[in-house]
Amino acid sequence: MSRRIHRRVLRTFPARTAGAIGAAAVVTVAFAPLANASEIATHGSVGSQDNHHAVFVQTNDPTGNAVVSYTRADNGQLTTFASYPTGGNGGTQEGAVVDPLASQGSLTYDARHRLLFAVNAGSETFTVFKVDGARLQQEQVLNSRGHLPTSISVSHNLVYVLDAGNDGAIAGFKIERDGKLHEIENSVRSLRLGNPTDPNFLKSPSQVAITPDGQEVVVSTKSAGTLDVFTLNHEGVPSEMPVTNTSAGAVPFALSFDKRGRLLVGEASGGESSYWVQPDGELTTISAHVANNQAATCWSAIAKGYVYVANAGSNTITGYSEDGRGQLTLLNSDGVTAPTDAGPVDLASTLDGNYVYQLATGAGAIDEFAVNDDGSLTRIGAVTGLTPDNGSGYEGIATS
After folding, report:
1. What is the pTM of this model?
2. What gap in Å lies between CA 134 and CA 151, rounded to an integer?
3. pLDDT digit string, tens, across residues 324-361
4. Sequence-separated (6 or more) residues with CB below 8 Å from residue 243
5. DSSP three-state, residue 37
6. Domain spanning 37-399: which superfamily?
7. How far apart are alpha carbons 134 and 348 in whole angstroms?
8. Which DSSP letter does residue 39 get?
9. Which residues of the chain have pLDDT under 70?
10. Are 39 and 53 in contact (CB under 8 A)?
C-alpha cells in the first residue's frame, strides 16, 4: 500500500455525514404500528420552529416505504411535520438485527441541489425528492440498476448508488441542469464479492461514498475487510476495476470525509481510522484503528470538527478529535461520549454542526444532542414511537 506524501490540490468542502452499519448485538424490539406521520409521538419543543431546518428519517417499510420529516426548533428539538411515500418498498438483509439495511447512507441529502435521495431496497429503486424546508416533492423513482440498493452518495452533480445484493455493484447518475437524474452510460461496476443473491448482512458491502472533489468512488466491505476505490474520468465513468485497499481495522463500515477531504472510516470491530485517498486509488493510512472499547461501531457523523460514531452493540456514541494532520484521538478514554437509547444506528449532524441526531431503531426513537465546543454531547430530548409493526425497523437519517 502506498505511503507517499499526498500531493492532490485540495479545496475546502463542507463535512458530510456518512455512516454505516453492521450491528452485532441482539436487541429485543417492541413494535408499534404506524399508519401515517400524525401517529408518531412528537417531542414538544421550546422555541420557535424553523421549517427551513429539517430532519428526515426513512421508515423502510417493506409494504410501502416513506420518508418522515421533522421541523427543527432553535434549540434543536424536533416536531413531526409530514410523511411522504417513496413509491417503493423497504427491505432487510439476512441476519441484521436493528440495522435492516446493514448500510450507511440509505437516506442522503444534497444541499447544493436541495435534493433528498432514498433507497427502496425491496423494489430495486431509489427515490429523488425536491426539498423545500420540511416539505418534500417526489421528482423521480429510478431503477438502481442492481439488486438491493442500500446506500447513496452525492458530490457536485454526481450520484452513485450501491446495490448490496449478489456480488455487490455500484451505478452512476448525473444531475442535469433541470435537476433530473440521468444514468451515466457504462457506469455499473461489480464488486465481485462472490455472494448469493441475498447475502448475509456481514457479507454485503456497507456504503458507497464519492470523494468531495468527485474524482473517486469508495466502497466499504465488511467481511472482506477492504476499501475499494474506483477512479472516475471527466464524465464520471469509473475505472473498470477498483484499487482494493486492506482496511486498517476489521469490518470497515462507515465512510465520511473531513473538510480537507481525508477519508474517515468507522469499523464495526470497534474503532475509527483515517486516510488520504491518492489520485491512483490507493489509500495512505494516517490513523490506524483507534479503538473505542465499544461494540458494533457502524455509523458516523462529523460536527464542529469532531467525529462521532454510533455503537449499536453498546448503546453509546463515541467522539473523536482530529488534529491538523488527520490523527484521531478519543474524546473520552472509556470510549463513551454519550449513552443512547437501544439499538443506535444512523447518525446525522446539522450543517452548522450544532446538533447531532441518533436514530435508535431498537427503541424506535431519535435521540437529540447538542454539540458543545469541547466535543461533549448534551442530550436535549428524543422523539419516540418510530418503529413500524413489520419487523424491519427505520433505517436512514439526514438533515437539511
Report:
1. 0.88
2. 22
3. 999 999 999 999 999 999 999 999 999 999 999 999 99
4. 228, 229, 230, 231, 280, 281, 282
5. helix
6. YVTN repeat-like/Quinoprotein amine dehydrogenase (2.130.10.10)
7. 16
8. G
9. 1-51, 388-392
10. no
